[in-house]
């Protein structure tokens, strides 16, 4: 049995590696997963939700450099391991400056207020300084209208996209497989009732249904995940129902009935394992759909709420800059959504070919 499983796994990966599109998609997904896990280690702004607001440098273009003087805050929290994965409040206040002059522990600076506008300030640091309070930061993708680093929010925002996809797919598979298997196996009035429910849900536009569920559950992080998941089960249920209808008439299923096996054992041990190929393919498709739906909801204001970074919310906050002098503020999250959705679609197509799933 183990040799058979090993051979199947070996053949599966060998076929998948031949599909360049699937390999590219899988590479992007793995990179996104690693980025999501180590987001606050990779992000230049490691505050929770990458929400360091510096209004003086709002809406700056990619590659913008700015000098700051760091002022230590009075209240400091001891750092912990969890800060590496969930972010930590800033130990310092970052004040943008145009120039500085040091005299011992005294710094005379010109605070940057706006282009061509400065304000003279003086700071005195008691005792021996452990580190230079003057730092220069580069904002590789620019800053948004609140002066937050776009790159950092883009990195942290990948957690939302992958999280909504994972939870939505889990919910859609659980509901869809159960209802589809029950409808296809028992048929009769059970099949008719479930099929009627499928057709009703299928007839409602996806975004409209998500709006209704979101308004019922309320706005928020987890509510969006659940709402998206409850709209994607229909595809799974229709697919599973059709597969079960074709398999339940095969001889080995008839044999399980003759041997007195329970319906549950027949469905979960003898039918579902033989239809998982098509289910895996549609799961990849649903993952991509969930990312797009979440982005659309956040753009419309009923998805993830500020200050939590969501790629759709980032587009909403900065879309007006597309027709002004800084379109990258909205283009960058749009490209991120497109790349991640493309990766899941390419992987789904590759899995379809490897598992020999007929559309």
Automatic annotation (TrEMBL):
Principal subcellular localisation of the protein: membrane
Localization: Cell membrane
Keyword Transport belongs to the record: yes
Signal sequence extent: none
One GO location term (cellular component): plasma membrane
Keywords: Cell membrane, Membrane, Transmembrane, Transmembrane helix, Transport
Transmembrane region(s): 21-43, 162-186, 193-215, 221-240, 279-304, 328-348
Membrane topology: Multi-pass membrane protein
Ribonucleoprotein keyword on record: no
Cross-referenced CDD domains: TM_PBP2
Domain ABC transmembrane type-1 residue range list: 158-348
Entries under InterPro entries matching the protein: BP-dependent_transpt_permease, MetI-like, MetI-like_sf, OppC_N
Pfam families named among the record's database cross-references: BPD_transp_1, OppC_N
PROSITE patterns assigned: ABC_TM1
Gene Ontology biological process terms in this record: transmembrane transport
Family of this protein: Belongs to the binding-protein-dependent transport system permease family.
Protein name: ABC transporter permease
């Amino acid at each position: 049995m183990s040799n058979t499983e090993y051979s199947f796994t070996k053949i599966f990966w060998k076929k998948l590696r031949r599909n360049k599109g699937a390999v590219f998609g899988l590479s992007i997904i793995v990179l996104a997963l690693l980025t999501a896990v180590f987001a606050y280690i990779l992000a230049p702004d490691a505050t929770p939700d990458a929400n360091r607001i510096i209004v003086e440098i709002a809406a700056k273009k990619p590659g913008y450099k700015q000098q700051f003087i760091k002022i230590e805050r009075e209240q400091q929290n001891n750092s912990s391991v969890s800060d590496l994965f969930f972010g930590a409040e800033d130990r310092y206040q970052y004040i943008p400056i145009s120039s500085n002059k040091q005299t011992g522990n005294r710094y005379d600076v010109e605070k940057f207020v706006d282009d061509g506008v400065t304000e003279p300030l003086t700071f005195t640091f008691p005792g021996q300084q452990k580190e230079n309070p003057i730092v220069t930061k580069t904002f590789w993708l620019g800053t948004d209208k609140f002066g937050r680093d776009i790159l950092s929010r883009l990195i942290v925002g990948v957690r939302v996209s992958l999280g909504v996809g994972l939870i939505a797919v889990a919910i859609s598979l659980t509901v869809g497989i159960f209802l589809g298997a029950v409808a296809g196996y028992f048929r009769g009035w059970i099949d008719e009732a479930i099929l009627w429910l499928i057709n009703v849900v299928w007839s409602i536009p996806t975004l409209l249904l998500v709006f209704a569920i979101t308004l019922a559950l309320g706005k928020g992080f987890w509510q969006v995940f659940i709402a998206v998941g409850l709209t994607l089960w229909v595809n799974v249920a229709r697919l599973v129902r059709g597969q079960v209808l074709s398999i339940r008439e095969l001889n080995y299923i008839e044999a399980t009935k003759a041997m007195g096996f329970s319906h549950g054992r027949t469905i979960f041990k003898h039918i579902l394992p033989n239809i998982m190929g098509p289910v895996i393919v549609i799961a990849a498709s649903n993952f991509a759909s969930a990312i797009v739906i979440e982005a659309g909801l956040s753009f419309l204001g009923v998805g993830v709420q500020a200050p939590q970074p969501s790629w759709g919310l980032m587009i909403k906050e900065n879309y007006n800059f597309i027709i002004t002098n800084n379109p990258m503020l909205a283009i960058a999250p749009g490209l991120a959504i497109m790349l991640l959705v493309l990766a899941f679609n390419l992987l789904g197509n590759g899995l379809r070919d490897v598992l020999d799933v007929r559309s």
